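ok trying again, last paste got cut off:
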Amino acid sequence: MWAALITLSGYVPLPLTGADYLELLPVRWQPITDRGIRLNYRTYNHDILTPVIFFAVLQWGRWPPGPV
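nice, full thing came through this time. structure:
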C-alpha cells in the first residue's frame, strides 16, 4: 500500500539534520561504574563523566537514575 501511494504521489527527499542523525544512532544501555564506561573490553573515562559517574554509583550503576 505504501509503495503504491508513493508511486502515485511521489516524495521529496529531505536532507537529514544533525538531530536526525542522532535519532538514527543505535541505543545501547551500559552500566557506568566508578572507573567509567566499559565497551568491548575498553574502559572510557573523562572529566566530563564525573557527575554522571557520581550519580550512577549512587544508583547501583543504573542510568538514568531510577527509584531506589
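cool. DSSP finds three helices and three strands in the chain. Residues 50-58 form the longest helix (9 residues).
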